[in-house]
Write a structure and sequence with these properties.
This protein has helices at 3-14, 25-31, 49-53, 66-77, and strands at 39-42, 45-48. By secondary structure, it is mostly helical. The protein has a two-stranded antiparallel sheet. Helix 1 (3-14) packs antiparallel against helix 4. The radius of gyration is 11 Å and the shape is globular. It starts with a helix and ends with a helix.
Length: 80
């Protein structure tokens, strides 16, 4: 499985219990199990929700699903 797919699956898994739509960056961070410290790992890559959140803009919100959040983050990060 690629780094992109691994990180994407971990983000989706971490947001499994979240209530969508999520309208703000603060609400998105609060939806992760350990907030901004929630960590996704793939190979040598390790990224926290707080770091990943810096890739998002106000125009990205609201998010309607965990899949949408994950796809936006991996695309912005340029993961392959």
């Amino acid at each position: 499985m690629s780094v992109r797919e691994t990180i994407k699956k971990q983000i989706i898994g971490a947001l499994k219990g979240a209530n969508f739509p999520i309208a703000t960056p603060e609400a998105l961070l609060a939806a992760f199990p350990q907030g901004a410290d929630t960590t996704c790992k793939a190979g040598d890559l390790e990224v926290t929700a707080g770091e990943a959140g810096k890739l998002l803009t106000a125009g990205d919100f609201p998010f309607n699903s965990a899949e949408e959040v994950a796809e936006t983050i991996v695309n912005r990060a340029g993961l392959k």
